[in-house]
Amino acid sequence: MKNSDLLEIAAQFGSPVYVYDSEKISTQYHRLSSAFKKVKQVKFNYAVKALSNVSILKIMKSLGAGLDTVSVQEVRLGLHAGFAPENIIYTPNGVSLEEIERVSKMGVQINIDNLSILEQFGTKYPNVPVCIRINPHVMAGGNSNISVGHIDSKFGISVHQIPHVLRIVENTEMNINGVHMHTGSDILDIEVFLYASEILFDTAKHFKNLEFIDFGSGFKVPYKPNDIETNIEELGEKLTRRFNSFCKEYGKDLTLGFEPGKFLVSEAGNFLTKVNVVKQTTSTVFAGVDSGFNHLIRPMLYNSHHEIININNPEGKERFYSVVGYICETDTFATNRRISEIKEGDILAFKNAGAYCFSMASNYNSRYRPAEVLWHEGSAHLIRKRENFEDLLHNQVEIEINSEAVPAN
C-alpha cells in the first residue's frame, strides 16, 4: 500500500484506524505453502486469536486455510465465516470440560493439553477423535510471555508424562488421531524448532492411528528494516525431509499441520494515528497521538518494536521522538525513536499492526475501539465500524440509586 492510500483512508474513516492489506496476507500464505510443497498433505490452520475479524477469516478460507481456535467463541466465528467443522482445530488451555464438550458437539477437531481433562473426556467420549498437545520442554520465543514450550509452562502435557497418557488411552480406549506442540512465538533458531520436532516424532510413535502431526507455529516476522526473521524456506526444506522420512517409518502418509497467525497477518497491518500534540520537555520531545495502549498494547506488554512512519512527511529530516498515547498512565509506544519531523495533525503509521493489535484492544479509559478497514483489490472496505457511546452502555444495566439513602462519610 502507498502512503497516499493510507492518508486517504485516515481522511475517510478517521483515526485511529486499523488497515489490513489482503494482498500481503495472500503473499505470506503462498510463501508458507511453497516452503512445504514437497509434503503430500499439509494443512495451515490460521490462528484466529491473532486477528479475528470475520472478513479476514473469509480471506483465509479463500486461500485454503483451516482455523486454529482457542475458545468456543472463536469456533463459532469460524463456523459463521463458512468454515467446515473438520477444518477447525480447537486448542484451549485451562477451560472447563463443559466447554470442550460444547465444542466437540460442533464437530471440530479437539486438542487436549492436560491429563485430567484427557481422562475425563476419554471416559465419556471414547469414540471422539482427540489430538494431544505435548510440552516438549524446549524454550523458544522472543519474550517470556510468548514462550510456551518450556518446563515451567502451563501449556501442554509434559513429554515426561507420556507413560501416563498411554495408560489413559489404554484404559479409556479413546481415539488419538493427532499430536501437537507449540514452543512459542518469534522463533529464530530453526535448529531448536527441529530439535523439538524430534521429540514430537518420538511421541507420535506411541500412537498407531494418527492422521496428522501439528507443529504449531511461532515464526518470527521482521519488525524493522533489515530485521532478522525465521528462515521459512530453510525450515521447509529440512522439516519436509524429516517429515517424509517419518511417514515412511510410520507406514502411511500423515498430514503436516501448522498454526500460523502473526506470520500471515502481522505485516499486512497498519495502525494509523493522528498527532495531537508535540511537547518539548527539558530532555525529550514527545509526539502525543490520539490512541494508547488500549488500542496497541504490544509495546507495553511485550516490549515489542513497531516501526513508526510519519506518512505526511516520510522523506523529511529525522528527529528523535518519544511517541506516547493519551491513556492516563505511562503509555509509551517508542522511546527516542528516529522519525521524520512531526507536526501536530500529522498521521503516523504503526507497522506490523495486523496481529494482536485489535484483538487485544480494550475500552480502557472508556475510549472507543477503532474501526477496521481492509484494503482489497485496490480499494478500501470498512470491515468493522468505530465504536460509539451507545456501545459503551450496551450491556450495562442501570439501577436506581436513592441518594438520600446513602449514608454520609
Quick structural overview:
This protein is α/β, with parallel strands linked by helices and 409 residues long.
Question: How far from one another are the termini?
Answer: 59 Å
Indicate the low-confidence ranges by residue numbers. 141-150
* Mean pLDDT value: 94
Overall geometry comes to globular
**Number of helix segments?**
12
- CATH fold assignment of the largest domain: TIM Barrel
Report the top-level CATH class of the largest domain: Alpha Beta
CATH superfamily of the largest domain: Alanine racemase
Total number of beta strands: 18
Overall SS class: alpha/beta
Oligomer: single chain
Query: Could you say what the CATH architecture of the largest domain is?
Result: Alpha-Beta Barrel
Rg calc: 23 Å
DSSP strand (E) fraction? 15-25%
Pathway: Amino-acid biosynthesis; L-lysine biosynthesis via DAP pathway; L-lysine from DL-2,6-diaminopimelate: step 1/1
EC number: 4.1.1.20
Binding site for substrate: 298, 302, 329, 356
Pfam families: Orn_Arg_deC_N, Orn_DAP_Arg_deC
Protein architecture, described:
There is one protein chain. The chain has helices at 3-13, 22-35, 54-63, 72-80, 97-104, 115-124, 162-172, 190-204, 232-250, 262-265, 298-302, 389-393; strands spanning 17-21, 42-47, 66-69, 88-90, 109-112, 130-135, 157-158, 176-180, 212-214, 255-258, 269-280, 285-289, 308-310, 318-324, 332-340, 347-350, 371-376, 379-384. The chain has 409 residues and is α/β, with parallel strands linked by helices. The protein has two domains: 22-265, Alpha-Beta Barrel (TIM Barrel), CATH 3.20.20; 269-386, Beta Barrel (Lyase, Ornithine Decarboxylase, Chain A, domain 1). Helix 3 links the parallel strand 2 and strand 3. The model is unreliable at 141-150 (pLDDT under 50).
